[in-house]
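Predict both folds.
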Amino acid sequence: MAITDWPEDERPRERLLKQGAAALSDAELLAIFLRVGVKGQSAVDLARTLLNHFGSLTRLFAAGPTEFVAIPGMGNAKYAQLQAVVEMARRALREELATRDLLSTPAAVRDWLRLHIGGLSHEVFVALWLDAQNRLIADEVLFTGTLTQTSVYPREVVKQALARNAAAVVLAHNHPSGVAEPSQADELLTRSLKQALALVDVKLLDHFIVAAGVAPLSFAERGLL
């Protein structure tokens, strides 16, 4: 049954206008983006197909064009539209981080990290460089690794901190396995980086582990810094 044949108070777009976007499920929100379904599937059915295939919105957002267009009803135009929406969300969050104390916006930090690295199939190590007011100066991928490990060199991290004239930093890396728990190696690396950065008066405010489908883990909140 097409969505236009549904009772008006059950249609995603009408519900959004009356109740707000937060009242909708992931599939309903995605259906509004898709606008139409395919033969035998409404837009909501197609949205559920996409979510089942990729496993989460995070992995859907991180999908490459080849994997995305392999889904019946999806094409390059729809992929481009989706990536434009995701990039606008990233930039809006980045604007918030650049104008406010990063420590006062923990939800925005987590959302930004999820959108950037949560759905990647390879491991990356990123830094959010901050000024003396904990506002974002720059973000960058410092190291890229394999599915299981990343080689992180404290000397290179310190070099980049000095190049950015940073007063503080928030570090993060992803776990493609989907488990956002720190390994012993993660804890040892964090302590090593904190000590190295302290030598040049740069504060390590937090280190996050990001995985698809779960909230990023904060070392600071776990008492691991």
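Second protein follows, with its predicted structure tokens after the sequence.
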Amino acid sequence: MFTEKKFRSLEPLLRCRKAARILQDAEKALRRGYPVDTTYLIMILRTALEEPELRLENTDQGIFLRSINSYKYKLMDKAGIQVADWDMALDTDIPGAVRRVLPISVYLEDIRSPFNVGSIFRTAESFCFKEVLLSPDTPTPAQSRAKRSAMGTDAILPWSIMSKNQLIDKPVFSLETGGTPLDEFQFPKEGIMILGSEETGVSPELMAMARESRGIVSIPIYGIKRSVNVGVAFGIAAQAWAASLLKS
């Protein structure tokens, strides 16, 4: 723990960075029901923000948490830190939780962005997918940016590298344009959803394989661009697939 004297000895930007990290740790502690030293946090904030009259209201935990969260981002902004998903105090660990698993998988065909890979992992875990399958040209969750956006789900969700030929004779369908609208599509009881490259979409060979198997599902889009990020598209389709199985 930094003393006030030691904290004041830091360069102003370093003080803001350190203070933001201290507030993030305090935020996580509060979410888990642990006490924090309010007097110490006030000293840190007053020093870093140079606001000697600053107060923290801690009579209500919800207000206290929001106040700490707001000051954390104020400090990050002052320090010139760009906010990323992995900077957020997202405490998703549930002690003793047993993960529900549905017989559904997703195949990432030549997804190039590590951020998208990690985001898909996070979404797949949320909707009870049993595994994520990666083409040889898709970054693995071991890549640093993929690991960050996966938010720990890469350690929960099984994954493996699989060639396109290994999908032959498996129940597959693709998420792509020109298919059956999402609300009309008959999702299979089990199988593999194929996601294609951010730039070129699902390859012709896998599209043909999907047509011969379980088909093609499309998300109706109404804007001018008629395009959404592959991770967003997967989230929409993943929720619909999981919901169709959990209702039956």
